[in-house]
Structures are given as structure tokens and as C-alpha cells.
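Objective 1b. Sequence-to-structure analysis of Glyoxalase-like domain-containing protein.
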Amino acid sequence: MLRNNDAVATVAVSDLKTARMFYEGKLGLQPLDGEEPGVITYATGRSTLFIYESQHAGTNKATAATWVVGDGIAGIVKDLKANGVAFERYDFPDTTMEGDVHVTGAIKAAWFKDPDGNIHAVVNG
């Protein structure tokens, strides 16, 4: 029923001003026109990232949004880190680290958190 419809990543934040500094300043996202009070919508590739203020910000302990970045993952992680993004390190079985990138077989992924602790990932696809 939903296979032909786009999905939107939805992330709760405690403060839109702080979120805007992170998502625009550190990740380089640009907001879409026509914002509504309490929300910011970003276009990212063919997807959309919907940021909204909530008292429940940062309570999700799993990955909220993932960007599929292809073989350029190491360069993107390097650029994000140079922009002030701190990367997480997780102890997964059969996984090695290449800098901040977790490598499990052909899969390469790196995780980072926004100011509210929401977890995001970049993956090679």
C-alpha cells in the first residue's frame, strides 16, 4: 500500500534555534520554503528531513535518520568532522574501525548525534 509513496525522516528537537545551527551549520542542509511555527523541513537528496520541537526530544535510542552516501563515505565523515560533528563508536561483533567509520564486510557506516542526542548515520549503501 505504501511502496510508491515517499517516507520522511522525522526528528524531535528541544530548541529549533539550536537545531538549525546544527542541521544547517554543521550538516550543510538548507530549509525548504514555507516553514510553519515549531518545525523546519529540509530537503536532502530526494528525501525530506522534518525537524519539530517536542518535549520528547532525544528520547529515541536508535538511529533516527540515515543518509546513503555511497563510496565517498570516508570523505563525507572527514568533512563533517572538520565541521564539528562528533562521531560515535559502537562495539559491534565482526566490525573493525577505519577512523570513525565502522566496517562490517562490505558495509561502512558512521553514526553521530545532534544536540538533543538524536542518532543519525551515514552509510555507503
